[in-house]
# Entry
Amino acid sequence: MLAFLTVGESGRIGRHSLAVRAGLGEGAVRTVLKRLREEGLSDADASGCYLTREGQEVYSSLSKKLSPLATIDGSRLTMGDAQVAVLVRGGGAAVKSGIEQRDSAIGVGAAGATTYVVKGSRFTIPGGSDDCEKDFPGRAWTALRRRLKPRNGDAVILCGSEREETARLGALSAALSLL
# Structure
């Protein structure tokens, strides 16, 4: 999924650049691109890989639900030095306790993840804080608002790890658990 989204964001990208941007090995990228081609979602030529018409439709649909991944610096809101956030538009209704998203992130190697549900204009934690900005003050909230532009009913997942690549995979895995 991360490779698919990276190709969609780029429009056209070479395998090496895709491996670097997605944080995957070149062998893994070849395998993923082969699967995407088999599914009719991508193709490649001498200038790089790109999404087919069907791939662009799927990417467009996902882009309406998922924000681009956003690196958040200096946050103490979840575990791990490298932290990446993603917004799931309207995903708040699917959040139970947030443990499911944490487990999805940990399953791909992340240190942890915290799921926030936006209610009104406040970040909340299911079964916990009704106003996280007040209860856990810090600069990260400004970055989350600016980068993700959350609205009422959205879910925001902040995933942490020691490596940014793993935090990106964890955030995406957690977000997919809400779709």
